Amino acid sequence: MTAARAQWGSRLGFILAAAGSAIGLGAIWKFPYIAGNNGGGAFLLLYIGFSLTIGLTVMLAELALGRAAKLGPVGAFRKLAGKKWALFGYLGVLTGFLIMTFYSVVGGWTLGYMAKAVSGDLAGLSREGLNQVFTGFISDPWKPVGYHGLFLLLNMAVVLGGVKSGIEAICKYLMPGLFLLMIGLIVRALLLPGAMDGVAFFLVPDFAKVTMGTVIEALGFAFFSLSLGMGAMITYGSYLDDEAKLVSSALWVIGLQIACAVLAGLMVLPVVFAFGFDPAAGPGLSFITLPAIFDHLPAGKWLCTLFFSLLLVAALTSSISLIEVVTSYFIDEHGFERRRVTLAVCLVIFVAGIAPSLSFGLWQDVKPFGRSIFDLLDYVTSNLLLPIGGIAISVCLGWLSWPVLAKQLPEELPWLTTALRIGCRWVAPLAISGVLLNGL
Ligand code: PHE
Known about the structure:
The chain has 18 helices and no strands. It has helices at 11-22, 25-37, 41-69, 73-81, 86-118, 127-139, 143-160, 163-190, 195-203, 212-225, 232-238, 246-275, 285-294, 300-334, 338-358, 373-400, 402-406, 414-439.
């Protein structure tokens, strides 16, 4: 360790970067469709509940672990809990890689849709037309793979810029723009006739629809959307200086992420009901429904282009945190040079990502464990690997290195320290294991 570890430029910069990692395709692409698949309101409540309890606990644990060790997940586990625990760090690196293989495919879709929006291909289409455009696009053997490659090139450009100038700068200016545009779209969507049915579906919980599957999805989505369980927050915490306040930063990130998911639901689901789309349409839901609303806006074509550009930026600020976990592992543990590692990692992700991309077309009949390759990667990482990582992180902090977290909590809030200790030791590991075991 010769060079001093890079640090964030400011407290706001860190919060924005962590929020940037959290807010991404998860909230805007994934949330509306899994809420649609899982009965709407009840799913939203479960998700918020998990985020504010288990999510907050694991996030504080990750940030504290990273800041204390000043290392990524593998090194941090090894340094603070012992050699065997490094295994969970490797698991995190692997999970980050696996998530990236399908995340980048969807990132590529946003690029493809930007191009479609600019060229006017999305304007004036009927419901069937929008469905067809999407299905046609994702089942093409070449185009989505090409866009997936392009998305990775953009990632490389940002990651090579380094921690401060790359990641932080992007988050600071463009994320607020995304929020504003979403609010504008919600206002328009709510004025559509029939939109209120969507609002009711989304906000009025129907607990009759809650099954064990719903609970697992909500827990898995809390981990996925908050970037927890694989070391992204450990890595980001390792760039944090010792003055930064953990609790308020974590609360900000979680609050912003929940706000973003709620906004996305309010943006997409009313449109679904107003135009008679299927709320359980699956991964294409946002891509199919949103262009419909732009048709009802002046300069819709340009607003649509702007929307997919901002979604692209949100996706980028998340995917760079996934790539950063993988690359910083090779840099910290094996002393590789950043430029080369980034190039190699992106190349491997590109090749591996071809399979989930083709699983919407050429390989749609390949169904290991009854799911498409894309689905399987998504399901296993969010609903299994991330929660397992979450158990490891909370057990590690709660039992093996509690002082690491305790030292970093505000002294004037002793109840918080007690609550988190119980949370790390008992509540988080038991609750997560309970949900997982029930699911199996
Ligand atoms: N939280 C990101 C999103 O919602 C995805 C992500 C998961 C990023 C895990 C980092 C780690 O889009």
